[in-house]
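User: Run a structure prediction on this.
Assistant: Running it now.
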Amino acid sequence: MAPADDLTFGELVASDLVRYTGRTGPWWTAIPRGLGRPGLWATLVVRAQQRLHARGSRRAAEMLRGLGLWWVGIDVAAGARIGPGVWFEHPVGIVIGNGVVIGAGVTVAQGVTLGVRHSDVAAPDDFPTIGDGAILGARSTVLGGVTVGAGAVVGAHTLVLHDVAPGTTVVGRTSAPHA
């Protein structure tokens, strides 16, 4: 998984632009092709928010979080780690918690929720980790310290409460059996 922390703001934005526009090269040449895509706007807000948070500008990052929610309907906590080449397919209703880790080339559809099971006191390992190239279908929910493996597909309206193996597809409720 490519950590977003190791890449510059420009490298992250360029990787996202390639996903949205299909073009490589200077980022400013790809922007006109992506201007009509709300997911690209959401990505730009989230990337700026991440950088502000990493530099210690927590208040400014939270203001951008509010802007993202108001402007394109996405709610991403500033402490989420999102790898390069993310694709927010219709970003309205997407909620991503503070300790979530998302790998490279992940697709997140509308209404996806990634967060903790209990919000009382959440430790970093209480948040989901999404592997490279995973696809999260519309209105799917991944809760707790679970891992969705690389290349896995989580179907629309699926509730994930335990690990998903790499390259597999899950649909419905994927909770561990009760003892």
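The longest strand covers residues 113-115.
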